[in-house]
Amino acid sequence: MNQKPIEQPVLLGMMRLLDYPQLATPQQLLGFIERCVESGLSGFDHANIYGLGECEARFGAALRLQPALRQQLQLISKADIVPAAQDRSRWQVKHYNTAAQYLTESVEASLSRLAVERLDSFLLHRPSPLLHTDEVVRALQGLLESGKVGGIGLSNAEPLHWQVLCRELPLRCNQIELSLLAQQAAWDGRLQAMQADGLQVQAWSPLAGGAFPPALQQALAEVGEAVQATPNQVALAWVRSLPGKPLPILGSLRWSRIEEALAGAALQLDAPTWFYLAEAARGIKAP
Ligand SMILES: NC(=O)c1ccc[n+]([C@@H]2O[C@H](COP(=O)([O-])OP(=O)(O)OC[C@H]3O[C@@H](n4cnc5c(N)ncnc54)[C@H](OP(=O)(O)O)[C@@H]3O)[C@@H](O)[C@H]2O)c1
Predict the structure, then answer these.
(1) Number of domains the chain contains
(2) Residue whose CA is closest, atom 26 of ligand 1?
(3) What is the rounded distance in angstroms from the CA atom of residue 253 to the CA atom of residue 255?
(4) Can you name the residues that pair with 171 across neighbouring β-strands?
(5) What is the mean pLDDT of residues 42-55?
(6) Residue 222: CB partners within 8 Å, gap ≥ 6?
(7) Residue in 122, 220, 252, 257 to alter for ligand 1 test, most ligand atoms within 8 A of Cβ
(8) Which of 45, 152, 217, 282 lies deepest, with the highest CB count within 10 Å?
(9) CATH number of the domain that 115 lies in?
């Protein structure tokens, strides 16, 4: 089993795939995936719920045109969130399902949609209040042993969740919201704790979905001018400067934004610059 963390400048998030008409056909999406690989990007972050399965299905349709390309990709998927629209109970309620059978069947469904035989990583999407450790351990171990997943990890996990599961399972990552607008993990010790427990930190919504307020945008532009980088490059460098070098999952699939992120991948920020931006985003000084 490959337990190495993914080493890339960014992962590409597939949550918004359906928003890009220029990637709507299998041929167009195949061209995009090939371009990513040529540029050194091979990690694609899926989940069974993105587009209610349609994002994985579109990706799979592209891969079916060029199955050999799969060898060059690192495919992540996640499961356990059941959107209200997919709840078959009478309540039609969004909930989490960490039952062993559900997790196994979800992975099998993702494999079939993606047209591959194995996920490189499978993550529990959100820790459920009803998560029974023994059952989840059994399900994830079974998936590893079957070869249907190459590695396992968590998403949105708090320290106690991952510490309990780490005792039983070779977890490799935790995917958390982390950006200038979602700084909590940078201040409460979670990043150091993940590093100590050998978990790669993957940062979702690293650009806060494009919602940086004007004061922060101005600070990013000022810093950008000082370090000769664009505001987005500075915002991604802010995330990467943190302990464990969190790996941003870029949500935009516009090529110009991907190129911009790649061009800024080596940018480093010193501590005063990091704190200047943290303060501009939080509106308060460091204590
Ligand atoms: N594990 C989890 O629970 C979880 C939760 C959420 C997301 N994720 C993963 O994280 C990935 C990224 O999330 P995200 O899409 O929220 O990330 P993001 O990179 O913070 O946001 C990208 C979005 O912001 C928009 N945007 C607007 N102005 C922008 C600007 N100036 N610069 C860059 N983007 C701008 C982009 O639109 P344009 O099309 O105009 O560029 C795009 O819709 C998802 O695809 C998914 O794989 C995981």
Answers:
(1) 1
(2) 210
(3) 6
(4) 152
(5) 98
(6) none
(7) 252
(8) 45
(9) 3.20.20.100
